[in-house]
User: Fold this.
Amino acid sequence: MSERELTYGEAVREAIAEEMRRDPRVFLIGEDVAEAGHPFKVLTGLVQEFGTDRIIDTPISEPGYAGIGVGAAMTGMRPIVDVMFGDFITLAMDQIVNQAAKVHYMSGGKLKVPIVFRTTLGATRRSAAQHSQSLHAWVSHIPGLKVALPSSPYEAKGLMKSAIRDDSPVVIFEDKMMYRIKGPVPEGDYLVPFGVAEVKRAGTDVTIVATSSMVQVALGAAAMLDEVGLHAEVIDPRTTFPLDKQTLIDSAKKTSRAIVVDEGYERYGVTAEIAAVIAEGAFYHLDAPVRRIGAMDVPVPFSPVLEDLTVPTEKAVFEVAKALCGKP
Amino acid sequence: MTTTAVIEPRMELEQNLHMYRQMAKIRAFEEQVNELYKSAKMPGLAHLYVGEEGVAVGVCEALRRDDFITSTHRGHGHCLAKGASVNRMFAELLGKEAGYCRGKGGSMHIADPETGNLGANAIVGGSAGIATGAALSAKMRGSGQVAVCFFGDGALGQGLLYEAMNMAALWKLPVVYVCENNLYGEYTPCGETVAGEILARARAFGIHAEGVDGQDVQLVNAVMRRLVERARRGEGPAFVECKTYRYYGHHVGDVNREYRTREEEREWMTQHDPLETLSSRLTAQGLADASVFERIQTDVKAEVDAGVQFALAAAYPEATEIDQHVYA
Assistant:
């Protein structure tokens, strides 16, 4: 019997629906989440099942509803705060960074903030500079936050369920270009644990660590590398915090070469952090410097011919890997 | 409309004396905090509540123990009025493990969930969302709890407050916004920072709003009892502007106070002192005499002296505490 397939968006919705059925404290709040079912239609049908008391449309007030989510989480509820575009987390940053991330620590462990901020990342949707960024590095920087980056429908469901059940604040970034991608998703309950990287493809010559939208790019590059006789290992950390450092280091020790690919801006980014983790942990096993491939350090341009240049491609990863392995 | 008419003192004498005791305790506590600062026994700074005691006590005496409050950087009075112990308050101010936050929060972050205190907040206006979210949570859980959001006139410049009030009005949430207008946002007179009428801002959202003399604890309490019960009945949020005055500067180190006159300070201290207002009224009504208030003063000074000794003798946290409670 073939495995059931869902789209990435359907997997997100199924995770939320299952958790809302399981736990009456879970609710979802944000812009256009009820009857509209979210602009990406990820939430279609939820309001019909759970009603407007638990699928709550808000005004366009990111700091306001983020803060309301924090207060509800501190007092016995488990909110999912829907921030439509990842770019908009900047508006809610005080509530995410200074409030949600700090309350447990500042209160000496007495208050908890079991909240999920669900938002998006990813360019090439022709949405220009304020709707296309991948800002997960911002929140990965903050002690007190966990950050999940599902790279397939399977992870989209399993990471969302783990996020909802976590007693700490979690920011989960969904790749908006992946909502219609299909993949196997088990029915019923399963969790993808935080802090456990997934080896997407085993290999011997080079390690490619890739996150979220870049996992498919890395797998495409690996297929191209096969053709020139190089076997890449592709690893998805799945969460930038907690980060499964050991799996990344072990792989780099094995292959002696590593590339990190992520759709966030390259400078001061997730690629830099993971490259440093590998360099520190596998230094004496490396035959080449760890390479970073992130989004270009420019505001995302509108024109398609320009926008496509800003995002790492299979070809780019292939070329870097080939050069790293000393192949002409 | 400002509530200016004197409310007949219908409350029991016992309740009035309890409010006097609470105000006296806050004042004695804060005077002691200033001494700790001046004698270099307290790390960092503190924002003293002296002069504003009528607001915290009048408000909190209208609340149930399980009702929520969110507090501000000038929060010691709110915490004590809601039921915090002097010992653990001092311990927190001195960074000791016996403090409310195990010494990790300090003056501006005291939280005590057992008395419904969701925490002081060092981001001006930063708790407007949290208080409103606690009210949403209370409504969703059907708990009958009410949330009070304390903030100063300085927070009137923060957009979050208006986003939260908008949603509270739309959803008829059981929250009361208490604006402590002490005439200065940090070092700047509020006349330079607040345009238009303060109460009109709340009324624009359809929120019931009234002003009250914050130096008259009986008036504050009477207004709050009415508005809290109204909120508890499901009739929606309210906004109260309490006119008050901080006798000290913005914080303990602000000793020159170039931005206001000594005459103005003298006027508030001699003509509008909340303790004196209550004691002289009860005395004039023949309900108590000077010896009653002297006894209360002696009692609270003893409590404060014992509390500060407790805190000075208490242990600092172990170094192993440092990475505890980052995540729940």
Summary: The CA atoms of residues 87 and 306 of chain B lie 8 Å apart. Chain B has eleven helices and eight strands.
